[in-house]
Design a protein that fits this description.
By secondary structure, this protein is α/β, with parallel strands linked by helices. It is about 25% helix and about 35% strand. It is built from nine helices and 35 strands. It has a nine-stranded mixed β-sheet with strand order 19-18-20-21-26-25-24-22-23, with helices on one face. The chain has a five-stranded mixed β-sheet with strand order 7-6-3-8-10, sandwiched between helices.
Amino acid sequence: MSWLTPLGFLGLIGILILILIYILKPNYQQKFISSTFVWELSLKYRRKKIPINKFRNILLFICQVLVITSCALILAQPVIAENQKPEVLEKVAIIDASASMRSSYDDVTRYERAISEVSTLAEEVFANGGYMTVIVAGKDASYLAQRATAEDSLELLSTLEEMIDEDTCTYGKADIEGAVKLAQKVVDANADTEVLLYTGTQYLAHEGVTIVDVTENGEWNAAILDCEALVEENYYTFKVSVAAYNRDTDLMVYCDIKGANGGGTVKMELPVRCNGDETKTVSFVTQNSQTAVHEFESVHVYISENDSFAADNDFYIYGGQKPELKILYYSPNANIFFAGSVMSVRDTLNNRWSIEYKEINTFTETSELPVSGYDFYIYEDAMPDIMPEDGVVMLVNMDKAPDGLPVIMGSEVSGNFNLSYGETHALTNLLTPEKIYLSKYKRLLNYDGFTPLLYCAGDPVLLVQETEKQKVVLMPFSVNFGDISLLVDFPILLYNIFEYFMPSTLTEYAFDVNETISLKARGESLSVESSTGKKEVLEQFPGEIVVTEYGTYTLRQITMSGMEVVEHFFVKIPSSESEINKTLDELYEILVPIKKDSENLDLLIYFAAALVALLMLERLLQAQDS
């Protein structure tokens, strides 16, 4: 039993006062008077009651003492205390592993300082018999150690040391929110746990998390934040965003354009004044150089500064040379609708492809039809003797089936027809076959291996075949016997063929670290290699890769025409990580569980009940005395 208000025992002084009252209380005096019969009877009666009176007086005194004692105990607030678990020392250390933690001073990075401080904290916790949890907030947050004890100290400290040697800090953003959520699980188990975040980022609000600043006063960073290639009047302008953090300084920005117009390297430089952590923009206008740049192999934009974070001092731009596509169109009766639609698609894809279009007809002197060396073959009315195997082949209004094509031609069918859908396929995206009119087509008696995409009167009139050796589109009717060439569906069909069989591997050439990139291929496989030699091969498309390193990546693939295509793209440090002294508004909040109030057994009500009972007993004794 314990007492919440021990001063309440001062009420026991009332017992001394009660005793003093009894001592000072006057006794009855004996008086001798003349006796009468009645008086003798009364006196006789009282003599019989004397022992009971003395006992009642004793009970009355005891009852009054107990009443005073009960009041004093009530004032002292008696409780029986619940057994409480002793508090356990427990720490959670979150290590920020973002790119900004690579900022260094005196050849020591923030990341290394953070690991060193966490190691020191772990030693202190283990020395005091506590628990230690370490969370690394990299691309994804993960536990390095969870509620480790002194028995695990050697393993944890060794792992922390290895993290420095193996350079485990990322080049992208850190999953701080995920790390705090992992810390929350530990706090849920022990509300007395302290959560510490070792970082160089400041937070205006960080409820439940102690921020441990691992920065040094001398750190500063000059950065190329972004670059953009703009085409203006058929020549390039390169727009560059730069900034300097923690220092006002003059920077010289350099721009080396390699393979300018298929030639050598054009070098340019511009000064820029950076102050107040503000982003500044400089533009390299190639029209002002010796030659206007219409195309380029690559552009290297860089600054030469001995700052604390060198990974964002360079930026590469690719995509200045569009991949080449070679298209062959053959027809003894050149169709202006076909040629016009191909030209329309070429103009639409001009920003992604360099398309070379060649047309052969009966007026062109040639010994035989080419069946190799092109990415896309279109034969109309007259077919080659053998099927090409190095590109996509489109056969329109066939007069025969070339060798190697598993198709048997049938009779010609005439009438008034509208087309209808067959199998769902990317080639028929946005087409409206029910609006396409056809008056004549050739029936196919056999088309093993082909997928019917459009039907006419129950017969397939648009088919596709995809194998390792052949990519074939069959259209066994002439556009002259229908209205498809007058509809928007015709150029849409050709565009779908380009997009499906000859997709652009890349639509952008610059990405952030840890970004997911979707890739398409013009062949059966595609290899992706980083600047450090890390290689990945994709064989299913569209494929995805996550780029975890900064620098230039190289794509290699063999097209269906047998040509090796090499492309490059650049992965940069996220711009937010270049701002090494950034302050964010709010950190994800740790919710500390409310400690459960002590479930002590409160005896107040029992003493109060006893007090009421004693008062009633005292009142009863007083009534008997009366």
